[in-house]
Amino acid sequence: MPGVTSYSLRTGNPDKTRADVVVIGVAQRPGKRKGPVVAPGGEAVAEAYGRKFAPLLASIGATGTSGEVTRVPTGGAINSPVLVLVGMGDLAALTTEKVRRAAGVAARNIGNVASVALALPAGDAAHIRAVAEGFLTGSYAFSGNRSGEKKKPIAEVAILSEAARRKDCVEALAAAQVVGKYADLARDWVNLPPNQLSPEGFADSVRALDKSKQPAVAVTVLDEKELADLGCGGILGVGMGSDNPPRLVRLEYRPDDAVGHVALVGKGITYDSGGLTIKPGSSMTTMKCDMAGAASVLAATYAIAELGIPVSVTAWAPMAENMISGRAMRPGDVLTMYGGRTVEVLNTDAEGRLVLADALTMASESGADSIVEVSTLTGACVVALGDRVAGLFGDDATVADLQAAAGVTGELLWRLPVPEETSERVRTESKVADLLQHNWVRWGSSLWAAAFLKEFVDGRPFAHIDMAGPAYNSGTAWGHVPSGGTGFSIPTLVEYVATRAR
Fold first, then answer.
1. What are phi and psi of 104, to 5 degrees?
2. What is the pLDDT of residue 27?
3. In sequence order, which ranges of 108-166 are alpha helices (DSSP H)?
4. For the ranges 147-156, 215-224, 329-338, which has the lowest average pLDDT?
5. What's the farthest any 2 CA atoms get from each other in the chain?
6. How many of the other CB atoms lie within 10 Å of CB of 472?
7. 103, 217, 376, 487: least surrounded by Cβ within 10 Å?
8. Is the pLDDT of residue 431 over 60?
9. Dihedral of CA 167/168/172/178: which sign?
10. Does the pLDDT of residue 2 top 60, yes or no?
């Protein structure tokens, strides 16, 4: 099919392949020995160069440092005309995450070619998955609004591995492609400018997916009238300041052989001005990404369905635009949430927890074994953990399972507490409502947000991922992570559900 990259596993030697480009890894020698060394998978290339290989590395200044990349014309030393050497760091610590990042760096530096052979460490299913995920993610670039001719995708990518014929390795490559396809869809959603992705438009794009050749996922979209009938005061309160009305999208995946049920909830604020508690101008420029949580849970659900994982999944994506008008929610307003609890609003820029409260209550009513919520929720979490690590809150068992899943996917989650005294303050500090949405104490505001969300899950196993930092990369690409929407949390959500099936 034109315009689609074909991925395959092969057992051939990298020095013999006739691909336009061959990629190998270069690592730093362990201990006190100096000079880089070829990483596993690229030995045949080093042998083909023979004694010339070490001088070649020295002449191009290769050190093996992670992220380093060099293109070298081979001059016939191997069959491929171009060799790409990508740094992988310490040879003694070549984790799957380093492999994933190296593959991503390679993807951005191969040039305009038709075929690539990846001879990176790929001796088992975990490493093959890492190579595929890294190259797929590193190949992503959003160009939806650029005029002129679009860059043609690579026609063929071959991952070279002695384990290429093993069933688990073939399955690992297939799974990586499915997750990568839906992660790219989520990135496209996040990268669309806010005038091109309103709540209604976002919901319509999910409906359009359902009408195409997608897995058996049932889609329900609730409009503002239906939300009002249900009493979804959080979603309506946030969305009423905008001319673009809110929506709630629910996905249901019900395999016949299901061994459990997971609920996923994601924040879908398609643009966040802060409302009457308006943001500084410089803080608004990337607020199209405030729906990344919704994009992640929707994409993860479709990936889970296409992979046929035998776990039922219900996903809720509350969608609203937080704007300013004569109808906008005010600090001091009291909202009645779905389920009947009242909330005093003190900060209209803490709107995400309000739309999530309605959706979390619905999720708690679904009978799911666990609830996982994902959102770009608080700037305080970025202050605490930086822009590459997400905060993780929840009960011990659910948190441990998500940490284990993230250990496989390489995504960085750091557990933060939900102190009981914070929960108590959420319940008692309002003089006019059941719960207080926000307080203006600067310290620990991410913990307050998590405690507020916890109030709506009815004591069920629950985890909250605050990915305000890693969901959107406003800088240059690094490792396998592209600029713009990153697709963060999607691999971990899929792995979490798959682990529950196992």
1. -65, -40
2. 96
3. 125-138
4. 147-156
5. 79
6. 23
7. 217
8. yes
9. positive
10. no
Place of tokens 């620990």: 444
Cα 218 from chain centre? 22
Pairing mode, strands 247-253 and 312-322: antiparallel
Please give the single-letter amino acid code of residue 499: T
In 3D space, the residue among 114, 25, 120, 127 whose CA is nearest the CA of residue 70 turns out to be 25
Q: Mean pLDDT, to the nearest integer, of 337-343?
A: 98
Look at residue 3 in the predicted model and tell me its pLDDT: 62
Looking at the whole model, is its pTM more than 0.85? yes
- Separation of alpha carbons 164 and 394, rounded Å: 39
CB 492 within 8 Å of CB 115: no
Calpha distance 433→337 (Å, rounded):
11
**Which residues is 313 bridged to in the sheet?**
253, 262
Confidence tier at 202 by pLDDT (50, 70, 90): very high
On the question of pLDDT at 13 being above 50, the answer is yes
User: For residues 276 and 331, is the Cβ–Cβ distance under 8 A?
Assistant: yes
Q: Which helix (H) or strand (E) holds 63?
A: none
Q: Is 146 helix (H, G, I), strand (E, B) or coil?
A: coil
Q: How far apart are the first and last CA of the chain?
A: 34
Q: How does DSSP classify residue 154?
A: P
The answer, yes or no, to whether residue 129 has pLDDT greater than 50, is yes
pLDDT digits (tens, 9 = 90+) for 209-235: 977 756 689 999 999 999 999 999 999
What integer is the mean pLDDT of 179-193?
97
Which residues, other chains included, contact 327 with Cβ-Cβ below 8 Å and sequence gap of 6+? 240, 241
For residue 252, is it left (φ>0), alpha (ψ between -120 and 50) or beta?
Answer: beta
DSSP 255: -
Instruction: Name the pairing type of β-strands 370-375 and 334-336.
Output: unpaired
Of 502, 260, 282, 293, whose CA–CA distance to 390 is shortest? 293
Q: Which residues contact 276 (CB under 8 A, 6 or more apart)?
A: 241, 324, 328, 329, 330, 331, 348
SS3 189: helix
What rounded mean pLDDT belongs to the chain?
96
Residues known to be catalytic: 279, 353
- Residue 130's Cβ-side half-sphere holds a number of Cα atoms within 13 Å equal to 26
Burial of 443 (0-12, 13-18, 19+ CB in 10 A): exposed
**CA atoms of 377 and 291, how far apart (whole Å):** 10
